[in-house]
Amino acid sequence: MQVVEMKENGVAAAAGAGEKAAQTHLTVKRGEPTLVKPAEPTPTGEQYYLSNLDQNIAVIVQTVYCYKDGSGGDKQDDVAAALRDALARVLVHYHPLAGRLGISPEMKLTVELTGEGAVFVEADADVDLADVGDLTKPDPAALGQLVFSVPGAKHILEMPPMTAQVTRFRCGGFALGLAMNHCMFDGIGAMEFVNSWAETARGAAHLTVPPFLDRTVLKARDPPAHTFPHHEFAEIPDVSDTAALYASQDLLYRSFCFDPDRLERVRSLAGAGDDGDGDLPRRRFTTFEALSGLVWRARTKALGLAPDQRTKLLFAVDGRRRFSPPLPRGYFGNGIVLTNAIATAGELLSAPVSRAAGMVQEAVRMVTDEYMRSAVDYFEATRARPSLASTLLITTWSRLEFHGADFGWGEPVMSGPVTLPEKEVILFLAHGKERKSINVLLGLPATAMDAFQELMDEI
Description:
Elements (H helix, E strand, L loop, with lengths): L2 E5 L9 H7 L4 E3 L3 E3 L10 E3 L2 H4 L4 E8 L7 H16 L9 E4 L5 E4 L5 E8 L14 H4 L18 E7 L5 E8 L5 H15 L40 H7 L2 E8 L1 H11 L16 H16 L7 E9 L17 E9 H5 L3 H13 L3 H14 L8 E6 L17 E4 L7 E7 L5 E9 H12 L2
Helix pairs in contact: 3-5, 7-8, 8-10, 8-12
């Protein structure tokens, strides 16, 4: 199993391309940021409605796409110009991205349709693209230079919905770094935007998947009716004092690659034992259910949680087809809903992996149209946001088509996230040319990471 390790305040690579990235001093010189406005008139002077599903996850997500152009010279200047021009044209369709975040009279996040434009920056790196290393291993120190953040911004209202940075490398390759607010769209919506931008750059006359902009289809019911308990918002006491563990040790990040053979072993392991509920000894689990159960249990053990410590697993389920009626094709917004499972550490560790995988499966099945509308109504009534106390949040990007963003220079040779947003987050990423492997990325205190490593080595 390939493992790459990173410290919070630097990079300490253990193997592979990540080692090269750790040894390479990347310096990026940025030009002045400019604003790219929609190429045609768009609605202005109004507020664009964000649904309650958008309100819960207003965090900046940074991703990088690297392209091995190879031509060098003047054509690199054409890259920035082409991307800027195509962005202006695609913003006609996605015009809320040219606005700015604000607060509605109901004290919710909204988008002020100012039409002032997305932030666009050109930059130059002093190394070759190959020196960046492997983007499947997030490295905030280096990769963060490939994404533009507004200097001095103290909160999301001072940050534009999206920024784009084009970085040219000595070899002729280039990188496109995006910083986009999750309240504007989930992973599927973000990739539809990037792919629309890409096909616009390639000269397409029409978008394959035009955005559906009306988010009022997910308005809360009147009156709100939350018919589920929604434990995803629950605050869980830290009786194990893991806060002290995180405070006293370096936070290490590692990436664990599960190839198809290892994933099959995980599924077999999850399906091998009775989950204690009286079901048949063998159950069928999806790769996500089995892998999520495995890492939830392993992380619980690695952190040394007290047997009576309650631990919550959160993860997002795509609700686009689960709503009744389904959300329209190209829905521009968050169509994901958080679901959850809660157990004590003792319950997880005294039972086989099938117990944890079974709880994940039950959490997936819980997400029905009524559950999702109940979640929308719950926020309307309480304005509560999911708590990450004593929580593991798994987010999966393994089905997102990052590799398909062809702006006219071929598919990206590398793409991926810049960093993990919170210490409680684990990210599942597709890996390899055929995307049949999964990289599991996470951060843990040093001693807990060593314990987690040993558990993964047993698989």
